[in-house]
Amino acid sequence: MRLLCACVFCLLLGCAKEAAKADAGVAREVSKGPRILRVDPTVLERLGLKVEAAGSQGPSHQIQVPGSLDFNVEKVARIGTVLEGRVTSVTGKVGDPVKKGQRMATVMAPAVAAAQADYLSARAQSTYTTDRVQREQLLAARDLTTAQELGLARSEKNKADAQLAAAEARLRALGVGVPVNEGGIAGAGTLVLTSPMDGVVVQRDVLLGQYLQPHDTAFVVADLSELWAMLEVFEAEMPYLRIGSEVQLTLDAAPGKTYPGKLAAIEPHLGKHSRSVRARVIVPNLDGALRPGFFVRGSIQIPELPGQVLVPSTAVQPLDDDDVVFVELERGKYEVRPIRVSRRTSEIAEIAAGLARGERVVVEGAFLLRGEVTRQ
């Protein structure tokens, strides 16, 4: 009997040693209280765990979203003609810097010549009727004419003045200067296309000799000193967006550089297929290093909200039928804490119950600890 008990004892002792070897420095305390996971310091270094305090602000509490740079549409101008005509000269080229009022092209438009001729005719008629009124007034003072003749002269003058004003307004609407001499019209029928703003020529769709229509765009000029970063924010991330939130932008075209900005606007409609909304960030570009079309990545800082408990999504791990986090009690000692998640994105999880603000949780390497728990 003693021999049988000794054999059983040895067998149990051997099984315990084998189990200890399998743990490889990781053990879980078994009790009726919370599940505790202990990690040997040598194993802890190898796991590379990262721990942060739960809350609503932290290095990991950011939304990472993709996007691209675009023109600031408030600083873009399309240049074209209001009349059909043939291009007789072109001076603007893509990439050229231009100043406000600078000549870009000239167009020969017959309608401009007709409008200039109408103006000269109206001005001559106005001059004639003015002189006639003055003569009638002198004659009336000597009783050499009638009041009816004077009234008729004044009526014709008013009509001529109205026609002159209309002819001048038409020229100004066409962007054509008013003729200043009577002998002829300098550059008759010529319409000059000029830049309405300082900027850079980013598009040219006109050739020498081309026939332009009023709906055609000859040039596009843009001020590139300020661009827009249009970020694609998914539906689940929208509750965390706030106008004025800090945004850090990184670009593949500028490795190692970060461009700060603020969230300026959020478009009111959601994409039917992408299920995302576009958020606009204003990006200064005084050195001209950034270009529209560049791919960007934006990190949007989540604003501080009372009572909100956030952790990175990587901190929440599925275990059996629960979502759990690993709360650090001390270095190498972690509580396996069941929690309830109210909202989750690819970056952030909002905790509804089970975790208090300020408690330190594992935010990187939590899946390794989950693996240790499931193995045990």
Written description of the protein model:
The protein has three domains: 23-61 and 307-375, conserved putative lor/sdh protein from methanococcus maripaludis s2 fold (Beta Barrel), CATH 2.40.420.20; 62-72 and 224-301, Elongation Factor Tu (Ef-tu), domain 3; 78-221, Beta Barrel (OB fold (Dihydrolipoamide Acetyltransferase, E2P)), CATH 2.40.50. The chain is built from five helices and 23 strands. It has helices spanning 2-23, 41-47, 110-141, 147-173, 366-375; strands spanning 26-29, 35-39, 50-53, 62-71, 76-79, 85-90, 97-98, 103-108, 190-194, 199-204, 211-212, 219-222, 226-234, 246-251, 254-266, 276-284, 295-301, 310-312, 317-319, 322-330, 333-344, 348-353, 360-364. Strands 1, 2, 18, 19, 20, 21 and 22 form a seven-stranded antiparallel sheet that branches. Helix 3 runs antiparallel to helix 4 (147-173). The chain is elongated and about 125 Å long. Residues 1-31 have low confidence and may be disordered.
The counted number of beta strands is 23
The CATH topology of the largest domain is what?
A: OB fold (Dihydrolipoamide Acetyltransferase, E2P)
CATH structural architecture of the largest domain: Beta Barrel
> CATH H-level name of the largest domain... which superfamily?
RNA polymerase II/Efflux pump adaptor protein, barrel-sandwich hybrid domain
H/I helix tally: 5
- Give Rg in angstroms: 40 Å
Helix content: 25-40%
Sheet of most strands: 7 strands, antiparallel
Flag low-confidence runs. Answer: 1-31
Class of the largest domain in CATH?
Answer: Mainly Beta
N-to-C CA distance: 34 Å
Please, what is the average pLDDT?
A: 82
Order of H and E elements: HEEHEEEEEEHHEEEEEEEEEEEEEEEH
Count of distinct structural domains: 3
* DSSP strand content: 35-45%
**Sheet/helix structural class:** alpha+beta
